[in-house]
Amino acid sequence: MAEKKKLAVEDLTISFWTNQGMVRAVRGVSFDLFEGETLAIVGESGSGKSVTSRAIMGILAGNAVIDKGHIYYEGQDLTKIPEDEFHRIRGDKIGMIFQDPMSSLNPIMRIGKQITEGMIINGKRLKQRYKRLVHQAKHDIWEAKRQRKLLVAELQTKKRELKKAGKTEELADYKAEHKRRMEENDKKLQAAKVQFRKDKKEAKQTVKKEWNEKKQETKEELARLREELKKHSRSDQSYKNDRKYIELKEDIEKRRKEINELQKKRRTTAQSKIRIELRNEIDHLKEELKKPVEELKAIRRAGGVKRKELKRKISETKENKRRFKKVTRREARQRAIQVMREVGIPQPEKRLRQYPFQFSGGMRQRIVIAIALTASPDILICDEPTTALDVTIQSQILELIKNLKEERSLSVIFITHDLGVVANMADRIAVMYAGKIVEIGTADEIFYDPRHPYTWALLSSMPDLESTERLVAIPGTPPNMLFPPKGDAFAERNQYAMKIDFDEEPPFFKVSDTHYAKTWLLHKDAPEVEMPEILRHRIEKMMKLHEEAREVRKDASGSR
Amino acid sequence: MQAEAAEQPIVSVRNLKTHFKSGVGKNKLIVRAVDDVSFDIQKGEVFGLVGESGCGKTTTGRTIIKLYEPTDGEIYFKGERIGAGLEGVKREIKRTRKRYSREISSLNKELKEEIGNASEGRKETLRKEYREKIESLRKERAAKIDELKKEKEKRKDDNTEEKKELMKKMQMIFQDPIASLNPRMTVKEIIAEGLRITGEKKDKVITKKVHAVLETVGLLPEHANRYPHEFSGGQRQRIGVARALVINPEFIIADEPISALDVSIQAQVINLLNDLREQLGLTILFIAHDLSVIKYFSDRIGVMYYGKLVELADKTELFKNPLHPYTRSLLSAVPQPDPRFERTRQRIEYRPAEEHDYTEDKPDLHEIKEGHYVHANQKELEEYKKLLKD
């Protein structure tokens, strides 16, 4: 495909240790996420959709085990990299929005602090630069250490195996070979360590040098600015010698005298008619006086304005120096306001100082989105972001996510149990059931040409605005994942289930280049099965509507 | 609203207000959760209440079943008043008192003026005349206030009096099936509680009834001895339904019974409620925020916005002729399982401050077409009439 792959999940299998045994939450999930697309993962609760997304974020619960599989992001396998390393990716590259905005915000912390917190913590720029410089060597050390562990483990198993088989000669051979490999690896490790020390030293020097340079630069700049400021000191009254200033002053004084005389005259006259006339004249003169007074003030103030500007420049220079080292609070605040505006929160300056309870549900969810966006991630994972919201707010939030996706060309993984929600959002949809993807395809394919009985059931079990017939409910409940069923997991609740469904798991059958479904119904030997009546009617109706709409559009363009 | 209806409505709500007060003095805050809502629910129909969270639909339901005390207005159930707010009467008493005292004082003033102008002989007759007038006014006032006070007492009585036999006929299904079932009681105990409270003592009868109702809602009699945590979400909601059904109610308030359930389970519960409604002839007040579900399940729909009923109509009529801007905005926000339609969908925003100008003409609920009510003032009513399609 021409599009760029952002994320690739391959055969991901995750289990949880519990008192009752292993819960097989995810059983071999594979999908790709391309740049700028929205992939929706749909399924009931307990189908493993949230667990998959949490694995991508690296925030699985403590009792979770990744049995096998890989998550590739930018050439790295996220299931393998250590926790320290993950900090550079989580939040920064992959952001997440959680379901309940009330519980994902801290109730006793102001919104502003919550939004800027991550930026400030992650914002130690110099330190990060240093870390990036030594990263490669450190990575080599990790790799060598990991390799060593694997080699030791391999030796153990191999030894046991060969001893059991009684092949002592081979064992000796193997041991020698192993020793050689071990030594080689150790050498690598040593080299990496030496390299690391060297890199560390160099990195320290470069960073220090850069920092010193910046310091020096700032110092010079500051000295220059301060010198200039001195010139414009408050005691400086050179403007008083300016010709224009003197002229203006004289002019004003003359006018004032005139007004004073008129006023005196007015006070001494008894005739009301003349008094009124005089007053009008005085008012008129006063009005005229305003302009020159303003000009004079401007001349006087000019020094102050200049001073102010210089002071601002000085503080800016200082701020720049600080910003070179880390994300300052001022910078974080500016960014927070910008992001809040982007997600549609009015009056962000005021809202920053408020607490979560002062926001409505939709606004709270917007803040959660803002927090995820401050780090400008490439991938945004939305874990049921609208389930706790009602219809109008839901459509607002969906629109917001859609717009953000387009503006920032994000890749979005959208998790929900409501198929209706994703029709608007998703480019592709993956339907999950019992820890497996049962059908994956583009939105049009899933909605207009669903193939898996579970997708049929999901689609037909929800009423739309036209439906009047009895709803097709899915009988029973999802299987217990402590004992994952053999064969097709949906077979037990499936009215179209065949015998083979209970015994053998179906592979993915290809429907089109982008559309795959895991059901035996697509096998060439399977009997012809129609999708439920209610669903067929609905799709037919939708197609007809679109057909009509297209014709209307064609007519309109033709007549024009 | 529908005084001439052939059949008496099973529930009728008149000018219902439920306000929540908090704070004292400067911090006093009155939340008008329900503010002047009137509607009737006919026997055998499903009346849907829809609106966003916080618009007072749940409070309406809870006030009808008397979980909250109404602030003002009346609630009739099967023709009998079961709840009434005192606030209106109290205010009326105050107002009457003020009005009469104002009239009396104005009479007194008049008398003084007239006496000043009149001759000595006429003064006595004038005084007598006015005294009589004032006396009659006083009597009138006393009578009126007495009447109002009686009404107040009667309302108080209506509110406090226990009408077990009547209230038995009204039951409620709650939103969250996990939170609304006591985890320490078995299913049988949960379902039987209502029976015991209404006076059933024989264990045999109780067991029989519980088993019967479990079968009605699609569970098995052997489930009776289990605890709620052993059930799945859909089954738990069935238990909630069974608990409501066990004492043969005629009217059920279903407060978002499916919002907390998974999509596949939602259909199970809706189908169940639909079947029960046909079998048992139930009348249901169905509260939800999902328009497609409401459209599917109810006969008439009331749209609420910030404590007010803004539109009320038959469901087909409402979806064909949405008049109030809020209804239109709500309809435009319903997600559809149709990607091509969704891509071109235009959401209408509702901004009450810009849409309405109620500075002069105050709005009220008007019948614009038979059975179609909309909250508007006269000017808007004219505009809405133009929008009407058949």
Explain this structure.
The complex is a heterodimer of chains A (560) and B (390). By secondary structure, chain A is an alpha/beta fold. Among the domains of chain A are: 103 residues; 77 residues. In chain A, a hairpin with a 5-residue loop joins strand 11 and strand 12. The longest helix of chain A has 64 residues. Chain B has 390 residues and is α/β, with parallel strands linked by helices. Chain B has a domain of 74 residues. An eight-stranded mixed sheet of chain B has the order 6-7-8-3-9-10-12-11, sandwiched between helices. Chain B has a four-stranded antiparallel sheet with strand order 2-1-4-5. The radius of gyration of chain B is 27 Å and the shape is globular. The two termini of chain B are 22 Å apart. At the A-B interface, helix 11, helix 12, helix 13, helix 14 and helix 16 of A face helix 7, helix 8, helix 9, helix 11 and helix 12 of B.
- The number of helical elements of chain A comes to 16
Shape, per Cα inertia axes of chain A:
flat
The average pLDDT of chain A is 85
**What is the chains' assembly state?**
heterodimer
| Topology pattern of chain B, helix = H, strand = E | EEEHEEHHHEHHHEHEHEEHHHHEEH
How does the helix and strand content of chain B classify structurally? alpha/beta
Give the topology string of chain A: H per helix, E per strand: EEEHEEHEHHHHHHHHEHEHEEHHHEEH
Quick tags:
heterodimer; A: 560 residues; alpha/beta; eight-stranded mixed sheet; four-stranded antiparallel sheet; 12 strands; 56% helix; B: 390 residues; 14 helices; globular
Give a quick precis of the structure:
The complex is a heterodimer of chains A (about 550) and B (about 400). Chain A has about 550 residues and is an alpha/beta fold.
Task: Give the arrangement of secondary structure elements.
The complex is a heterodimer of chains A (560) and B (390).
Chain A: E1 5-18, E2 21-34, E3 38-42, H1 49-57, E4 64-73, E5 76-77, H2 83-86, E6 94-97, H3 111-121, H4 125-165, H5 168-231, H6 243-268, H7 272-325, H8 329-342, H9 348-351, H10 361-373, E7 379-383, H11 391-408, E8 411-416, H12 419-425, E9 428-433, E10 436-442, H13 443-448, H14 453-461, H15 499-503, E11 509-510, E12 516-517, H16 533-559
Parallel strand pairs in A: 3-8, 3-9, 6-7, 7-8
Antiparallel strand pairs in A: 1-2, 1-4, 4-5, 9-10, 10-12, 11-12
Chain B: E1 11-22, E2 29-41, E3 46-50, H1 57-64, E4 72-77, E5 80-84, H2 87-117, H3 120-160, H4 164-167, E6 170-173, H5 187-197, H6 203-216, H7 233-245, E7 251-255, H8 263-280, E8 283-288, H9 291-297, E9 300-305, E10 308-314, H10 315-320, H11 325-332, H12 339-344, H13 352-355, E11 364-369, E12 372-376, H14 378-387
Parallel strand pairs in B: 3-8, 3-9, 6-7, 7-8
Antiparallel strand pairs in B: 1-2, 1-4, 4-5, 9-10, 10-12, 11-12
Helix pairs in contact in B: 2-3, 5-6, 5-7, 6-7, 7-8
